[in-house]
Structure to design on (395 residues):
C-alpha cells in the first residue's frame, strides 16, 4: 500500500514554456530523497500527487519534502471515489486521526475542478460541515481564521486532506546551474548556500583548512554543516583545501594589516580553479556588507577582481539578526556557534585595512607569489560527499 501526499508547488506554476523542466526536476529531487522506498509522482495543474510506499517512515517523507526547494507545502491526502457518499465516508474516517480536536473553530475549503460534479462547492462544503459536526459537535465555523481546515478537491477523483505543512518554496535545486560555495564554520556561509539552493542553484562547497592552526574539530564542524545544507541542495560535495602553508606565507611575508585581504584573494583564486574543474560558473560567499573589515565595498571589490567568475553574496544586504533567524530555522545555527575557530580568525590582523586601494593591494598580492601555494593546496584537496538526505557517502 502507498500513502498519498498532495504537494503544492509555488513559483514553478508561474513558469511558461520551461515549466515541464522545472516540474520534472522537482519530481526527480523528491523521488531521489525517498529512495530506496518506492514512490510515484503524478501531476495535475499546480499540484503533485506523490504515492509513497507506506514502508517509508513518515519522518523521512516529512524531511524530504521540507528540504526540497520548489515544494511550498504538503498534506497527507486521501483519495476517494467522486460521489458525495464516498467523500463523507472518507471524511468521517480521517477526521479522528487528524489534528482536529473538539474545541475551537474550523472551515471547509472546496476546490471543484470538475464542473460536472452534481453538487456545487457551497453544497459540498455544507455536507462536509455536517460530517465534521458529527465527529466534533463542539467545533464552530470560522471562515477567516479557523483553527482547523478540512479541504476537498474534486478533480479526476476526489481528494481530502486536513493538515497542511508549510515548506520552503523557491525553485528545484538543479534548475539554475552550478556554483561553488565558500563554506566556513561560521553562521553566514551555510545560510548563503541554502539561499542559493532555494533559487535552484546547486553548489559544491570549499573549506580552507589550516591544520594545526584550525583543529580537526573545526573540520568536523564544517562537514556537519555541509551535511545539514546538502538536503536543500540535493546533495553536496565538500572540497577540503589544506591552506596552512599559504596562510603562513602570507603572515610572514605580507603587510600585517592586509593579511585577511591577501588570504581572501588567494581563496578566490583557489576556488576559481576548483570551480572551473567542476563545471561551476559562480562562487558563493556568506559576506554581508560592512559586517567585518574584509566585507566593506572596497574590500569586496578587491576580492572580486581576483576571479573572472561571478561572485554571488546572497546575504550582502542582510542584518546579522535576520541571518541568525534563518540559520536557526534551517538548523545550522547550533553547529555554527560551536567554539572551534576558523582559519580567518587565527590569522586575523589587529588593525585590518578597511579601504584597500585595489591596484595597490593587487600589487602586494602579486609580490607574494601565491601560485605555487595554490597549486599545492589544490593538489592536496580532499573530497567528502553527502547525499540528498545529508548522509555521508563515498566520494
Ligand atoms: P561566516 O559566518 O560564514 O564564517 P563571517 O562573518 O565569519 O562568515 P568571514 O570569516 O570574513 O566572515 O568570511 C566571509 C566569507 O568567506 C564566509 O561567509 C565564507 O563564504 C568565506 N570563508 C571564510 N573563511 C573560510 C574558510 N576557511 N573556508 C571557506 N570559506 C571561507
Ligand atoms: Mg567566518
Amino acid at each position: 500500500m502507498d500513502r498519498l501526499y498532495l504537494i503544492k508547488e509555488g513559483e514553478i506554476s508561474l513558469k511558461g514554456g520551461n515549466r515541464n523542466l522545472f516540474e520534472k526536476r522537482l519530481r526527480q529531487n523528491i523521488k531521489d530523497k525517498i529512495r530506496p522506498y518506492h514512490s510515484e509522482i503524478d501531476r495535475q495543474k499546480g499540484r503533485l500527487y506523490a504515492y509513497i510506499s507506506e514502508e517509508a517512515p513518515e519522518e523521512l517523507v516529512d524531511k524530504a519534502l521540507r528540504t526540497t526547494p520548489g515544494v511550498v507545502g504538503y498534506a497527507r491526502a486521501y483519495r476517494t471515489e467522486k460521489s458525495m457518499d464516498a467523500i463523507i465516508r472518507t471524511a468521517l474516517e480521517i477526521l479522528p486521526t487528524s489534528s482536529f480536536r473538539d474545541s475551537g473553530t474550523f472551515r471547509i475549503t472546496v476546490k471543484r475542478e470538475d464542473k460536472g460534479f452534481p453538487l456545487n462547492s457551497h453544497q459540498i462544503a455544507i455536507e462536509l460541515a455536517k460530517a465534521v459536526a458529527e465527529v466534533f459537535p463542539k467545533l464552530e465555523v470560522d471562515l477567516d481564521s479557523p483553527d482547523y481546515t478540512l479541504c476537498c478537491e474534486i478533480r479526476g477523483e476526489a481528494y481530502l486532506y486536513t493538515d497542511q505543512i508549510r515548506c520552503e518554496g523557491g525553485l528545484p535545486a538543479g534548475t539554475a546551474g552550478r556554483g561553488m560555495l565558500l563554506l566556513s564554520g561560521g553562521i553566514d556561509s551555510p545560510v548563503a548556500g541554502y539561499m542559493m539552493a532555494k533559487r535552484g542553484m546547486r553548489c559544491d562547497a570549499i573549506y580552507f583548512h589550516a591544520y594545526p592552526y584550525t583543529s580537526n574539530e573545526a573540520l568536523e564542524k564544517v562537514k556537519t554543516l555541509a551535511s545539514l545544507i546538502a538536503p536543500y541542495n540535493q546533495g553536496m560535495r565538500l572540497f577540503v583545501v589544506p591552506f596552512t602553508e599559504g596562510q603562513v606565507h602570507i603572515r610572514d611575508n605580507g603587510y600585517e594589516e592586509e593579511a585577511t585581504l591577501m588570504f581572501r584573494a588567494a581563496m578566490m583564486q583557489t576556488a576559481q580553479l576548483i570551480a572551473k574543474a567542476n563545471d561551476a560558473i559562480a562562487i558563493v560567499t556568506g559576506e554581508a556588507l560592512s559586517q567585518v573589515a574584509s566585507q566593506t565595498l572596497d574590500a569586496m571589490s578587491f576580492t572580486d577582481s581576483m576571479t573572472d567568475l561571478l561572485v554571488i553574496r546572497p546575504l550582502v544586504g542582510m542584518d546579522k539578526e535576520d541571518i541568525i533567524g534563518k540559520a536557526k530555522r534551517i538548523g545550522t545555527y547550533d553547529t555554527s556557534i560551536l567554539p572551534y575557530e576558523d582559519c580567518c580568525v587565527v590569522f586575523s590582523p589587529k588593525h585590518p585595512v578597511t579601504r584597500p586601494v585595489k591596484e595597490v593591494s593587487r600589487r602586494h598580492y602579486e609580490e607574494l607569489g601565491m601560485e605555487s601555494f595554490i597549486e599545492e593546496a589544490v593538489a592536496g584537496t580532499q573530497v567528502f560527499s553527502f547525499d540528498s538526505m545529508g548522509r555521508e557517502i563515498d566520494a
Q: What stands out?
A: The chain has 14 helices and 15 strands. The first strand starts at residue 2 and ends at 9. Residues 184, 186, 342, 344 surround magnesium ion (ligand 2) (CB under 6 Å). The chain has two domains: 2-166, 178-393.
